[in-house]
TrEMBL record:
Keyword Kinase assigned: yes
Protein's name according to its UniProt entry: histidine kinase
GO biological process, one term: osmosensory signaling via phosphorelay pathway
UniProt entry keywords in alphabetical sequence: Coiled coil, Kinase, Membrane, Phosphoprotein, Transferase
Reactions this protein catalyses: ATP + protein L-histidine = ADP + protein N-phospho-L-histidine
Organism, as annotated: Deinococcus psychrotolerans
Gene3D superfamilies: Histidine kinase-like ATPase, C-terminal domain (3.30.565.10), PAS domain (3.30.450.20)
Length: 472
């Protein structure tokens, strides 16, 4: 039995198998080896060529890809710069309403830098008055129920990096929001700052509300100016009429005058011829000439007064806060010559500060005080009281004296140009001072009036607005 026992098969390794295969291949006779070699070479060269072509194609594709990437990077940088430089605030929100992208203008609108805004809910920066309407719009866009676009006006509440109140109070921003749902599902917002536009609209509405009142006020002013112009022309003609008539009359007399002469006596003298000229003594001719010169000088004085009066209206006023205390002190200095040697009792209240033109306000007080001093010359003791009262809109300054006063029946002539309520022989002046007072007061948008009683004195009131009003 042991002789018939089978011997186990040998175990070959992979190296042994390869060696035996090569030996058998070499032992076999070679058939068509040259043809196979040529065929294999041809296939190899073809494959090599294909690989080289593919390699060149890959190089060209890589270069084109690099150029495309560079172009895309340039385009991305360009549009990123345009995105950041845009004056409109751009935001991208995810479906939860969180900010995922924002440009520089949007950061400025919300008062925080881009890193502090990313990830925060946009609604936190919206005023409560606009929050509900914006939330409704975002919900409709996110659900696809809307047409993919929406617009509304809202109020934003800018914040500071340190939290609410860290940078002090912030000014709300009025904005117009345009929203669109992108193809990727994000909601994109564009917010235009219309704060200045809304302020301008509010101003226009406020002006429209007061337009009728201002038209009525302007109409009254035009009527007053027309009346003032008529009075001016009338007063000017009256003031010039007297001196011009004097000049004309005396010139006519001199035209027909002949110097007086004593003819030499002669026995055979023939009768003197008839002459239409009148013979005047030389002294009378000189008197006529003096009257003409005086009338002409008076016309010159009136012309100078008119020039000064109109210059007051043409000069540009500079309205600033003016202390009437300082104005009155300056006026008293300029009237020092009038005050010297006279017994004057002053009573003066504390004067306010008003918005006005300092130079013309000095003219106003100069003429009021000069008027009080002039018409109190006959008093041994002059009493002048400068008082102040006020209402909701005006400061009312009064100047009272104990002078000769005036007849209230003539009060309509008080502030007319060249109107004198007393004889020029008794009191100096041209009737210009109170006309200047009225002109100054009207330029300040105020009122002026006066009262008097013959023999007991006069009082004048000037009402100046507390706030800047309509001026001329």
């Amino acid at each position: 039995m042991s002789d018939q026992q089978s011997t186990p098969a040998p175990v070959w390794s992979s190296d042994d198998l390869r060696r035996q295969a090569e030996e058998q291949l070499q032992a076999q006779p070679s058939q068509h080896s040259e043809a196979n070699f040529q065929h294999l070479r041809h296939d190899f060269e073809a494959q090599q060529h294909e690989l080289q072509v593919h390699q060149v194609e890959l190089l060209l594709q890589n270069e084109e890809l690099q150029r495309s990437n560079q172009a895309l990077e340039l385009a991305r940088d360009k549009y990123q710069e345009l995105y950041d430089m845009a004056p409109v605030g751009y935001f991208s929100l995810d479906k939860g309403g969180h900010i995922v992208e924002v440009n520089a203008a949007g950061s400025a609108q919300l008062g925080l830098s881009r890193p502090h805004l990313l990830g925060r809910r946009f609604l936190l920066f919206v005023d409560e008055s606009s929050r509900t309407s914006l939330a409704t719009l975002l919900k409709r866009l996110g659900s696809g129920a809307a047409s993919g676009r929406g617009r509304l006006e809202l109020r934003l509440l800018p914040q500071s990096a340190g939290g609410a109140g860290a940078g002090g109070p912030t000014v709300p921003l009025e904005g117009q929001l345009d929203a669109v749902l992108s193809s990727g599902g994000d909601i994109r917002l564009a917010i235009t700052d219309i704060t200045a536009l809304k302020a301008a609209q509010s101003t226009i509405l406020a002006l429209n509300d007061t337009l009728e009142t201002r038209i009525v006020a302007r109409t009254v002013q035009v009527q007053e100016l027309n009346e003032e112009l008529e009075l001016f022309v009338q007063s000017t003609m009256q003031a010039l009429d007297t001196p011009l008539r004097h000049i004309s009359s005396f010139a006519g007399l001199l035209k027909h005058a002949q110097p007086a002469a004593t003819p030499a006596p002669t026995a055979a003298a023939s009768p003197a011829p008839q002459d239409t000229q009148t013979v005047y003594p030389e002294a009378l001719r000189e008197h006529y000439l003096r009257e003409m010169v005086s009338a002409a000088e008076h016309v010159q004085v009136l012309a100078a007064a008119l020039t000064e009066y109109f210059r007051l209206g043409r000069q540009r006023a500079r309205f600033i806060p003016v202390s009437l205390e300082k104005v009155l002190a300056e006026v008293k200095k300029s009237l020092a010559g009038e005050l010297e040697g006279r017994q004057i009792v002053w009573e003066q209240h504390r004067l306010p500060t008003v918005t006005g033109d300092s130079r013309t306000l000095q003219l106003l007080f100069f003429h009021l005080l000069d008027n009080a001093l002039k018409f109190s010359e006959t008093r041994s003791e002059v009493r002048i009281c400068i008082g102040v009262s006020e209402n909701n809109t005006e400061y009312i300054i009064s100047v009272q004296d104990n002078g000769v006063g005036f007849n209230m029946r003539q009060k309509s002539r008080l502030f007319a140009l060249f109107q004198q309520l007393h004889s020029p022989r008794q009191f100096r002046g041209l009737g210009l001072g109170l006309a200047v007072v009225k002109r100054v007061v009207l330029r300040h948008g105020g009122r002026v009036w006066g009262e008097g009683k013959e023999g007991e004195g006069a009082s004048f009131w000037v009402a100046l607005p507390k706030e800047a009003g309509v001026r001329r």
